[in-house]
Write a structure and sequence with these properties.
Elements (H helix, E strand, L loop, with lengths): L1 H21 L2 H5 L16 H15 L1 H4 L13 E4 L2 E4 L16 H10 L14 H4 L4 H12 L12 E2 L9 H13 L10 H11 L5 H4 L17 E3 L2 E3 L14 H10 L1 E2 L3 E2 L3 H9 L4 H13 L36 H9 L1 H4 L4 H4 L10 H4 L4 H9 L21 H15 L10 H10 L4
Antiparallel strand pairs: 1-2, 2-3, 4-5, 6-7
Helix pairs in contact: 3-7, 5-7, 9-13, 11-12, 11-13, 14-19, 19-20
Bound molecules: heme C (3 copies).
């Protein structure tokens, strides 16, 4: 990742030059402020607003980012890896000293809309305020009511570890100047849009911040609006394109997409792993009509050009559906190392006839987006990381094989799996060196 660091340092120097050119934070201060918050924090009873806020927070993924591993909910301290260094989420419980206990609704809205903290210091866009700026006044009020109803926790986030000179927050004024306004254009929906599609657009663009992972970033870490939702990378994973879901070789249906978003599993497409897992765990608690609206909006998105991955094979799966007589591990015609490794490590769960695949809801690997993707990245990641055990969906556990296999074995295993379950053949680029690189991409820099 040394090259990446050097590149990032270059970017930082450019930003400093821009601060000089634009005159720094003052220049931003002269920009018109985003819409003022007009809704006073009195809509309905506070408990009703807080209950609405809880459902909205599930779409905003607030708890995932603002809770450290093993830490108190919302007390912050989770390290986020960015190309520019490590940024820690902060304490957003209503603790007066270390959290947002002393914040007014206006101060909260300023943070969410302008990336400005309570004392005026500028926040980094690892906090997705370029999306949150589009949240409606009513929803900001509900989120605030919910946060203020949480238990206060006294906890301070560790200091960020950013490459020089990005630790100097006023630099973000220039970033905001460059990117916050172009983001603002994304909000209004065409008046011809069906209400649920319009609601879905609003949620995807604002609170859901799906583009934070599913849109490629430019070198300054801003989303490329011209490639919105056409696929990005995050923590070493590919976040596939969300455009054209209804028109791929195996088109998603509304029911499949809603099921995937709420349970992390779609029988015809696969399971959510990596960073998407936490998103689906949260969406399980969101309001059902809102998740349906998100799905309706995504399915209405046209295919976005060449970067749309193929989701699954058009030809029939390499293996017939599970039947009792097929309960043995099929042997490849020329069993190589990959076949042996698969039989030993994977077949107990993934061979047809394995108890897991007899359960009708289980996706065959032949339908998995990861196995069919043009890049082997997610296939390798899922072998490396597995799927964390979690009590809410404990049947979805898959062990991590990062310490079980060598890079060469993982490459053989991934290629064998793709050859066996699809008609697409091995990934030509996938060898031990590629796996070593994928391992590094997923590690803290
Ligand atoms: C992708 C991770 C991520 C998500 C999702 C996220 N946040 Fe944050 N948030 C951060 C980080 C990181 C910071 C600190 C940024 C900094 O210090 O520059 C932050 C800062 C904040 C702040 C400013 C706190 C302060 O002391 O300055 C508020 C308020 C906030 N988040 C609220 C929310 C709410 C509400 C949600 C859900 C709707 C949410 N965040 C979702 C990462 C996230
Ligand atoms: C923190 C990053 C992140 C965020 C935020 C995120 N996703 Fe994802 N998403 C991913 C990754 C990574 C994958 C691939 C997971 C895998 O291969 O199992 C994925 C996969 C998906 C898929 C499956 C696509 C396919 O073709 O198989 C859908 C659908 C999806 N996400 C929808 C959404 C929606 C809707 C949102 C916003 C509400 C969202 N995602 C927010 C990272 C993210
Ligand atoms: C203990 C059971 C278990 C073992 C062993 C196991 N897996 Fe999995 N795997 C799962 C579960 C559960 C899922 C989630 C999808 C599902 O429920 O079918 C999954 C998902 C996957 C996916 C992603 C599917 C998608 O939808 O994106 C791939 C690829 C995969 N496994 C490959 C492997 C390989 C290769 C091995 C052997 C190295 C392996 N698995 C071993 C349980 C297992």
């Amino acid at each position: 990742m040394k090259g990446r660091r050097v590149a990032s340092a270059g970017v930082a120097v450019v930003l400093v030059a821009l601060v000089a050119a634009y005159g720094g934070p003052d220049a931003y201060a002269r920009e018109p402020a985003p819409d003022a918050v007009t809704t006073p924090f009195t809509t309905g009873s506070d408990t009703a607003a807080a209950a609405r806020g809880a459902k909205l927070a599930a779409i905003g993924n607030c708890v995932t980012c603002h809770t450290a591993t093993g830490g108190q909910p919302l007390a912050g301290g989770l390290p986020l890896q960015t190309p520019f260094g490590v940024i820690y989420s902060t304490n957003i419980t209503p603790d007066d000293e270390t959290g947002i206990g002393g914040w007014s609704l206006d101060a909260f809205a300023r943070a969410m809309r302008r990336g400005e903290s309570g004392d005026g210091h500028l926040l980094y866009p690892a906090f997705p305020y370029p999306h949150f700026m589009h949240i409606s006044d009513a929803d900001i009020g509900s989120l605030y009511a919910w946060l203020m109803s949480r238990a206060p926790v006294n906890a301070r986030a560790p200091h960020n570890e950013l490459i020089f000179p990005l630790g100097f927050r006023p630099i973000m004024a220039v970033w905001n100047l460059l990117y916050l306004h172009s983001g603002a254009e994304a909000a209004p929906s065409p008046s011809s849009e069906a209400p649920d599609v319009a609601r879905g657009r609003y949620l995807v663009e604002s609170l859901g911040h799906c583009g934070a992972c599913h849109t490629p970033l430019n070198r300054l870490g801003a989303e490329r609006r011209d490639l919105a939702l056409q696929g990005g990378t995050i923590d070493g994973w590919d976040a596939p394109a969300l455009t054209g879901l209804a028109s791929g070789p195996t088109p998603w249906t509304q029911a499949q997409l809603v099921g995937y978003l709420r349970t992390g599993l779609a029988s015809a497409h696969g399971a959510a792993a990596g960073p998407m897992r936490a998103v689906t765990r949260m969406l399980a608690d969101a309001s059902a009509p809102d998740v349906e609206a998100i799905a309706a909006y995504l399915l209405a998105l046209p295919s976005g050009g060449p970067s749309v991955p193929e989701h699954a094979v058009a030809s029939p799966p390499a293996f017939a559906p599970a039947s009792a007589s097929a309960a043995r591990v099929p042997v490849s015609t020329a069993p190589g190392n990959g076949a042996n490794l698969f039989a030993a490590a994977c077949a107990s769960c993934h061979a047809e006839g394995a108890p897991m695949s007899i359960d009708g809801a289980r996706p065959s690997l032949s339908l998995s987006t990861a196995v069919n993707a043009d890049s082997p990245r997610n296939m390798v990641r899922i072998i490396l990381e597995g799927i964390d055990w979690h009590e809410s969906d404990n049947a979805l556990f898959m062990p991590s094989f990062a310490n079980t296999f060598t890079d060469a074995q993982i490459a053989e295993l991934a290629n064998f799996t793709r050859e066996r379950f699809t008609s697409r053949g091995a990934w030509p680029s996938l060898d031990a060196g590629a796996v070593a690189q994928f391992r590094k991409d997923g590690q803290p820099r």
